[in-house]
From TrEMBL:
PROSITE patterns: PPR (PS51375), SAM_MT_TRMB (PS51625), ZF_C3H1 (PS50103). It holds the Pfam family PPR_long. Transmembrane segments: none annotated. Coiled coil: none annotated. This is tRNA (guanine(46)-N(7))-methyltransferase. PPR repeats lie at residues 221-255, 256-290, 293-327. Its EC number is 2.1.1.33. It comes from Effrenium voratum. Residues 1-54, 132-184, 454-474 are annotated as: Disordered. A zinc finger (C3H1-type) spans 374-401. Residues 374-401 form the C3H1-type domain. It catalyses: guanosine(46) in tRNA + S-adenosyl-L-methionine = N(7)-methylguanosine(46) in tRNA + S-adenosyl-L-homocysteine. It is an enzyme of class 2 (transferase). InterPro entries: PPR_rpt, PROP1-like_PPR_dom, SAM-dependent_MTases_sf, TPR-like_helical_dom_sf, tRNA_(Gua-N-7)_MeTrfase_Trmb, Znf_CCCH, Znf_CCCH_sf.
Length: 700
């Protein structure tokens, strides 16, 4: 419990200024009723400290007026009306400078109820933690003495975080010696433990540590809530993450871009882009609004790539200017990955001709327009560090002497992005039959590699990672060139033939009727470049491949050869090599849309017509699409374990191999066929062996 501080008398100021406080939600005021102990203490404190308790007055017009003072910082008419709830005032006059508002009601009972709510809010403010109470009374001396800070103090609701990770300032710790130093240091230590447990996916330990904060009577900070929320996200517990977020808001703390990024990351990893977009919209609806940074934008775009949501990705990319952000290399790569799947070569080419992918002329780079002079107080400190993302929209001065160093530092990253984007363009052009465009794109990849050879490595990438990425791209360039060469000799390439063996399972597929399933599967292929004229033939083919809602492999492959299945196929290197080595039919099942599309590309470029691509969650796909006793062999290569680094306490909902999956594999396997699981984690393999033994005993 939070203890009410001892009252102390001090001289009443002649003209007390209204304090500035963060806006508190209505629920805080409702928590303490007018007859509660906190309300009585609030009245006594008000009599001693000076501010007069608001009352009800009758105006000349016959209305009942309530004076609300002092108002929290940032109070607006919208916020006051939200505070009053179902009470409808006849008039509302807000004086932000004086920190008060006069609200008039036609009914005396409404005025009385408004006054009771306001007294409850004052009670909550009086019994608030010391930091918030110190801001409430500006005449009170600070908790600790020390030199004045040069940087402005962050608002209490976002203390310990900044609006951008580039502007991060640790405001959570206090100097030793203050009255609340012990409590603050204890809160900081517990918050760090929660963050450590979150990184290890030890959700239960993180929750217990957060409960210790509450048990000790400490007020959790935004950083504590954010660490607990991140623990839920890392363990795949999105209902728990959403509940933690609501509790944080109910405690009167505002969300910020760091908290929103953690919550949005969880929804994206769960494949719920609609909920992730809702987090972004809620940020913008706050008063004042919280604008996203590039890290949040890239998190959302990465989620769009996982599920193949081009519409949301384009919407976010188009709003970067509105948020005063400039596109970076990661933005472009994520968007281009989706454009390539749709075979939109012109859109990709347009991005290559714009910053940040376009080669910047030295003269243009040195003449960055700004709206400020070169006086010392207006110099942009982020530009000096090479981290300003606002460009000409930045109101501070950009020193041109920094430009050349910035270009030299950014050039390796730009060339790496150009190589990736050009390769995506080559993929799209090759699959859509645009040979000249494909050849130009391949030349662009090779030119970017040659230009980057003598430059230092790109930021955030080791030399080994950069070399490995370049080797992979060179192999893909060779595969595309071999594909183009084969087209000169053999029959014309028909991409629809390969799309006819791709099944992108949408959400809610299990609830659809058999006839609706064929239409839904054909519609999903539009995200992979299926043209409108070919949609009806594909839908008819799917009708032949599905019998009572389940796949008929003889119709899918056109042969009676045995069918083998790889769960978690990744980008398809292994399954493509197996399909090329024998005549067996192979099914590659992958959760992520971008990886599943990579399997399709490999099959198309190598003319592997014995590969079928299925995209969706493994257990649900087997349950609703695959018939009984039809698979000859199941392979799972290096599945993700539910724990990290051998930590027994770690927990995660993201692992694929579960008892339910074993039950489904047992159902679909032919008699005396087998499952092969490869892993380099010995403890995980032992746990899977125990799980399989238990499931087999229950099923046999």
């Amino acid at each position: 419990m939070l203890k009410t501080p001892k009252k102390r008398k001090r001289p009443r100021p002649e003209q007390p200024e209204q304090p500035e406080l963060p806006e508190l939600p209505e629920t805080v005021g409702e928590a303490a009723g007018p007859g509660s102990r906190a309300a009585r203490e609030a009245t006594e404190a008000a009599d001693e400290l000076g501010p007069q308790r608001p009352g009800i007055e009758r105006t000349a017009a016959g209305l009942f007026q309530v004076c609300l003072t002092p108002l929290p910082k940032g109070s607006s008419q919208k916020g006051l009306r939200s505070f009053m709830g179902n009470l409808v005032p006849a008039s509302l006059q807000l004086d932000s400078a004086a920190g008060q508002a006069n609200v008039c009601f036609q009914d005396a009972s409404d005025a009385k109820l408004c006054l009771e709510r306001w007294n409850g809010l004052n009670a909550a403010l009086t019994s608030a933690p010391k930091k918030r109470r110190r801001l409430l009374d500006p005449s009170q001396k600070p908790v600790f003495a020390g030199p004045a800070r040069s940087a402005p103090r962050a608002p209490i609701e976002s203390r310990g975080f900044s609006e951008s990770e580039d502007e991060h300032v640790d405001l959570g710790a206090k100097p030793k010696g203050g009255p609340s130093a012990d409590g603050s240091s204890e809160l900081l230590a517990l918050t760090r433990k929660i963050a450590s447990f979150a990184a290890q996916r030890r959700l239960s330990d993180a929750i217990k540590t957060f409960d210790r904060i509450l048990a000790k009577g400490l007020a959790p900070s935004v950083q504590a809530y954010a660490s607990l929320l991140n623990a839920h996200v890392n363990s795949g517990d999105m209902p728990g993450a959403a509940s933690t977020f609501r509790k944080m808001l109910a405690d009167g703390l505002r969300s910020n871009v760091v908290v929103a990024t953690a919550l949005l990351k969880g929804y994206c990893r769960a494949g719920d882009i609609q909920a992730a977009s809702g987090v972004l919209q809620d940020m913008m609806r706050q008063d004042p609004p919280v604008k996203p940074d590039l890290r949040l934008v890239n998190t959302l775009l990465r989620g769009c790539v996982r599920v193949g949501d081009l519409q949301t990705a384009e919407s976010v990319f188009d709003r970067l200017a509105e948020w005063q952000l400039q596109p970076d290399a990661s933005n472009c790569i994520f968007l281009v990955s989706l454009l390539s799947q749709r075979l939109r070569t012109k859109s990709i080419g347009a991005l290559l001709r714009k910053p940040p992918l376009e080669a910047v002329d030295q003269g243009n780079l040195l003449s960055q327009p700004t709206t400020s002079t070169s006086s010392d107080q207006n110099i942009c400190r982020f530009w000096a560090k090479g981290k300003c993302n606002k460009g000409s929209a930045c109101p501070f001065f950009h020193d041109s002497a920094v430009a050349k160093a910035k270009k030299d530092r950014d050039e390796p990253e730009r060339l790496a992005a150009v190589a990736s984007v050009s390769l995506h363009l080559a993929h799209a052009a090759a699959l859509s039959g645009k040979t000249r465009c494909c050849v130009r794109a391949l030349c662009g990849v090779e030119s970017a590699h040659a230009a980057a050879k003598d430059l230092p490595r790109a930021r955030n990438a080791s030399k080994e990672q950069q070399q490995s990425k370049q080797r992979e791209q060179e192999q893909e360039v060779k595969a595309i060139r071999d594909f183009l060469a084969s087209q000169k000799k053999g029959p014309a390439f028909n991409f629809s033939d390969f799309l006819g063996r791709c099944f992108l399972v949408p959400a809610g597929f299990a609830t659809l009727e058999p006839a609706e399933r064929c239409q839904a599967l054909a519609s999903e292929l539009q995200s992979w470049g299926l043209r409108q004229p070919a949609q009806e033939p594909i839908q008819q083919r799917f009708a032949r491949c599905l019998q009572e809602g389940r796949l008929r492999w003889s119709k899918v492959f056109g042969s009676q050869a045995p069918v083998k299945l790889e769960l978690g196929a990744g980008s398809g290197e292994w399954v493509a090599a197996q399909a090329k080595a024998d005549e067996t039919n192979w099914v590659a099942l992958e959760l992520m849309r971008d990886r599943a599309h990579s399997v399709l590309r490999r099959a198309a470029f190598q003319d592997l017509r014995n590969i079928c691509v299925v995209c969706g969650e493994a257990t649900k796909i087997l349950e609703h699409l695959v018939p009984n006793c039809c698979i000859s062999h199941v392979f799972i290569n290096f599945p993700e374990p539910p724990f990290v680094s051998g930590d027994e306490a770690a927990e995660s909902n993201f692992h694929m191999v579960t008892p339910e999956l074993f039950a489904e594999m047992h159902r679909i396997l032919r008699k005396e066929c087998q499952i092969t699981i490869l892993s380099d984690n010995h403890r995980y393999m032992q746990s899977l062996a125990r799980m399989a033994r238990i499931e087999w005993c229950l099923l046999v």
